[in-house]
Write a structure and sequence with these properties.
About 30% of the residues lie in helices and about 20% in strands. It has 22 helices and 29 strands. The strands form four sheets. Strands 20-18-17-8-7-6-5-2-1-29 form a ten-stranded mixed sheet, covered by helices on one side. α4 crosses α8. It is globular and about 85 Å long.
């Protein structure tokens, strides 16, 4: 589709700051929070250098607003990639670095100070600058181009006022090098970090304790071998489940062999989930245990110095002062300093049962950044595995496919060898040297499924033990720490759709990704119906719930915009979930297993009464089509939206992934709303066919631009909701007739 009527609007917005640069070549657009003074101007040599690099970059916007960036070198392509990201949503680019650098409180105030402290326990700007200085020269060139592309954007857009970061430095990408949804560090509970370092009691939140009903953070990936496709070409499903607008869809190429398309997390210079002409990679949040807590026995001497017991010795606790800035209520700046502690296991993040808890995780920023970028240039599985040898992917499984017909399921490569006598799901005794991490596992010793005979591999954030059906790795062959996720309802659903045929095409794979069957309700609803059947005649619940039970008894367990049974089932499931979450946690069971096996008949029926009551109260009837409740709404470019039932929204037929839907839409009520509004789930979805000439289809939640005035702010919502993926313009000839604008950065 072409949008020539919108070209003028798009062009005016993109060129907004070019005149400012022409008027004052050395002037740089850099704003601070309201009322602050702008940053000093850039030097003329900076601007001249940026202009020279911009002259080697071309950006072509297709008729969906997707940027196709072409650079002479990889560094030129990175320069253009970052410039295009800043055009589309500079706010998200900057915020990601406020988070990763531990500077969020400088924008959002003292309430963010503990999040910043958590980050700075592991991310020290001084250390990163030294790491940058010793990085490979090719990587330093890319990091410099990253900074230059963002700074040139600010220089050419004086109307854009950063909240905090007025100049991007080339070492900064090392603070945000992997691209996953929320790094391993997010497992540290902020309340307990605050309790430890503020020396006061702070109760854990229900969210930290895992008691809230929330959309699973993760993704789906499927790889299908040529033996199971109609045309003999490998297929790959890329289906990340993230917060909406979390990544930018881009195509980035250079004359040095870079030609990658897919989703790049805002502010990063590599395609995180995507493909090139020969290989494709999809990451799913992993359930492996490679982040551990060590309970340290602390001995405090008469001099006040802390030591910790390790074997027969006492070792000194390392101390470091971290000073953080934060924004005050009047827009000014203040500082807080913390004396922090660490052992050889890692920083101290909380106290439990009289022990200080050290938190160990991967901290290999240079290797992580190398692996993240180099995988985008791989040519086949052998190449991909060679790059994986850096062992700097800690949080993500990978589904892989290539043009040679190879497919694979891989777990994270950063996996420390540990003594399986110990249960690393809980804090282990840090004083016992036997609990220490040893070397990293070899790649061959990891659970994996490479070219499985069954012809497919998948992951839905579930365990590895069903990743390739009968050809999956076996749990008994591996230490316990290779899985702490267990199964989830999307796992059986993936097996169901993948086992249904051996003649997949791109279109039937898309259909499988949007299959409507809800495995969780297929398992749970019969127990509810059975509970009602057992009620004696004349029972009050027997009469009151007869019609709702009848609706669910007749239901085929499939979601749909017009389905009233979907609405009733979702409201029932949520009502059943909340009161039983703690019991399931105490029993060490998944919520789905607990609801199916331990919920009582009385609990099931009471939850249905609550669902009927809530639907009737909010919508006037308990028979409400799901699409009337479940909505996509994008009002503005704010990172945290305010939803409004009175404003336009669009029905979405699929449900939360909690209930087994592969297509995920994490929605709930918000203050002042009765309808549910989605904020996470399906974000970027793509299907790739690795034939003689690569073909791909994709859709992005909402649209490519973060600017409400852009024609590409919400132009994909109908395709998003219906699963009608659009053709990807991957080859130059694909773009013909679909070009909205071609330009160089700054023009």
């Amino acid at each position: 589709m072409n949008h020539p009527q919108n070209e003028g609007l798009s062009r005016r917005r993109m060129l907004g700051g070019a005149a400012g640069l022409a008027a004052g070549a050395a002037a740089v657009a850099a704003g601070l929070p309201s009322g602050a003074v702008a940053a000093p101007p850039r030097t003329t040599p900076d601007v001249a250098r940026w202009r020279r690099q911009a002259s080697r970059v071309t950006i072509t916007r297709d008729d969906w607003g997707i940027p196709h960036v072409v650079g002479t070198t990889d560094a030129d392509a990175v320069f253009g990639m970052m410039y295009a990201q800043a055009e589309d949503d500079f706010n998200r680019v900057e915020r990601n670095y406020l988070v990763s650098l531990g500077r969020l409180a400088e924008a959002e105030g003292e309430s963010a100070i503990w999040q910043d402290l958590r980050q700075r326990l592991y991310v020290d700007p001084g250390d990163l600058k030294r790491e940058y200085a010793h990085s490979p020269s090719w990587l330093r060139k890319l990091m410099q181009a990253w900074a230059d592309g963002l700074n040139y954007y600010l220089a050419t857009h004086p109307e854009v006022r950063p909240r905090v970061i007025t100049r991007f430095e080339p070492w900064m990408p090392l603070s945000f090098s992997e691209g996953s949804i929320g790094g391993d560090i997010e497992r540290v509970p902020l309340t307990q970090l605050e309790a430890f370092y503020s020396k006061r009691t702070v109760p854990m939140t229900d969210e930290e304790r895992g008691l809230l009903f929330r959309e699973p953070r993760g993704s789906n990936g499927m790889a299908i071998a040529p033996s199971h496709t109609r045309d003999g070409h490998a297929l790959l499903l890329i289906n990340p489940h993230t917060s909406f607008f979390f990544r930018s869809e881009q195509h980035v190429t250079s004359r040095e062999g870079l030609n990658a398309y897919g989703a790049a997390t805002w502010g990063q210079f590599f395609i995180y989930q995507g493909f090139n002409p020969n290989t494709g990679w999809m990451h799913t949040s992993s359930g492996v245990d490679n982040v551990d807590e060590f309970a340290e026995t602390i001995v405090t001497g008469a001099d006040g110095r802390h030591r910790y017991r390790y074997g027969d010795a006492l070792r000194p606790v390392t101390t470091k002062t971290i000073t953080l800035s934060y924004r005050t209520a009047d827009g000014g700046r203040a500082r807080r300093s913390f004396t922090t502690y660490a052992t050889h296991h890692g920083p101290i993040v909380r106290e439990a049962d009289g022990k200080w808890i050290a938190f160990a995780l991967m901290n290999k920023p240079v290797e992580a950044l190398q692996q993240s970028f180099l995988r985008t240039k791989t040519r086949d599985y052998a190449d991909f595995i060679q790059v994986a040898g850096l062992k700097a992917n800690s949080s993500n499984n990978t589904l892989f496919a290539d043009s040679k017909g190879e497919i694979a399921f891989l777990v994270p490569q950063f996996m420390p060898v540990r003594d399986d006598r110990f249960d690393y799901r809980k804090p282990v005794d840090g004083s016992d040297p036997a609990t220490d991490w040893r070397r990293l596992h070899s790649l061959r010793s990891l659970p994996q499924a490479v070219n499985p005979k069954n012809g497919w591999a998948f992951n839905t954030n579930n365990w590895p033990w069903t990743a390739a059906g009968a050809d999956s790795p076996h749990a008994a062959d591996y230490p316990r720490y290779f899985d702490q996720a267990g199964e989830n309802p999307r796992g059986p659903q993936a097996i169901r759709v993948l086992s249904a045929r051996n003649d997949f095409t791109p279109q039937t794979l898309i259909a499988a990704a949007f299959d409507t069957y809800l495995t969780a309700f297929a398992r749970l609803v019969p127990g509810l119906v059975g509970a009602w059947d057992k009620l004696p005649e004349g029972n009050q619940q027997k009469g009151a719930l007869a019609d709702p039970i009848g609706l669910l008894r007749r239901w085929d367990y499939r979601w749909g915009a017009q389905s009233t049974a979907t609405s009733l089932a979702v409201f029932w499931g949520e009502a059943l979930w909340a009161p039983l979450a703690q019991a399931a946690r105490d029993a060490g069971m998944s919520m789905w297993d607990y609801l199916a096996e331990r919920a009582t008949d009385a609990q099931r029926l009471t939850a249905l009464e609550a669902a009927v009551e809530r639907l009737t109260q909010d919508f006037g009837s308990w028979q409400v089509p799901w699409g009337e409740i479940n909505r996509f709404q994008r009002n503005d470019g704010a990172i945290t939206q305010t939803f409004d039932d009175a404003k336009p929204s669009y029905p979405v037929p699929f449900t939360s992934a909690q209930w087994g839907s592969l297509a995920s839409f994490g929605a709930r009520r918000y203050p002042g709303t009765k309808r549910y509004y989605g904020t996470s789930g399906n974000s970027f979805v793509a299907v790739v066919e690795f034939g003689p000439k690569l073909r791909a289809w994709a859709v992005t939640a909402g649209g490519a631009s973060g600017h409400p005035e852009s024609p590409h702010f919400n132009d994909q919502v109908e395709r998003y909701a219906s699963g009608n993926l659009r053709p990807v313009y991957f080859h130059p000839e694909d773009l013909r007739g679909h070009v909205e604008r071609t330009y160089r950065p700054g023009r």
